[in-house]
């Protein structure tokens, strides 16, 4: 009889072993699968236990802060190294010029697509505008201020700008610093070596933080479902549907056409970056995936110098998902209030958004601010913008994911353009056609794979044995 408690003890021990075994199995799952589990669990908690769901926002905030704290220490050395190691300052200007031109052309194409879709479906006609509260957006209302934008890009204290997370100022300063290092030649080697070590260490830190992504996803989804619910989604379902349709067309039609024109393997690029776009979708933050995105693009074949310059620049000036949302929203508001949506009015909307979307880099709640500024410019009521705030978090998820894909494609296109230009110059300098044929063969050779530290991050912080 003295041995009677043994079976109960054995049962507890077995249960513990079972729990740890399954927890370890979940931990070993791919990071994307873990994130999907986080979505399902977070939505369930937010719906069934709203109070708990709202408190879980802390998990999401901790994860997001962990990523953002690494962004500046990583982006700064990468841009500096990318520029200082280029063969000439002329190439820096060429890449910047191509990037800005690309951003403007693609932004215009996306806006025209958005306006066309919104007009086709007459989005907003008969929408319930009486419940809109303009007071909800009054504090955000502001016009475009290019003087403020310039001061934002060239601050009086770069350390303070870094502490504030002013990515645009960091890009500008890193570009100038990289040009200066390139100008002094061999004397820049010690600085480059230090920056290279810093970047490698930051890649490792990002790998550690990304392992916490499923917990961050769980926290964000639980909070969104608990706080916003699904009521606003149903009342503005038509608007949400048109925005999502437009974003699908951008990712599934427009981007592949652009990639085909420039010879970029678009779907191979998507396979490399899709899980990061999904993470940006859930967290509603492009910065959450900036560091690992640079590594994935390098693994895809984009040179580090191009990716580390074009992608951060695109985060400020190439927001394809956001501008599509803003264009559909303007047409929705105009139709909801029975205002003019003739072809000339729509073209004015396009022109205003082309300018404003490039003038709000670094502004908090940028999409809403741009929408308010555009509405004020063309005479639309602020109440219409307030009406859309209830579903902003739903469309924000999709437009953020598309922004990540758009900037990935931008880096790949610019890099491919540079590669073609290099091939042409190489052919022009060769003495005979046979040598030119050899150059073609070597140009198609695969790129050197990333370093072991980069592979560590690209695989989500684990190594395959």
UniProtKB/TrEMBL annotation:
It is a multi-pass membrane protein. The keyword Phosphoprotein does not apply. Pfam families: SDF (PF00375). Residues 424-465 are annotated as: Disordered. The keyword Membrane applies. Its main location: membrane. InterPro entries: Na-dicarboxylate_symporter, Na:dicarbo_symporter_sf. Keywords: Cell membrane, Membrane, Transmembrane, Transmembrane helix, Transport. This is Dicarboxylate/amino acid:cation symporter.
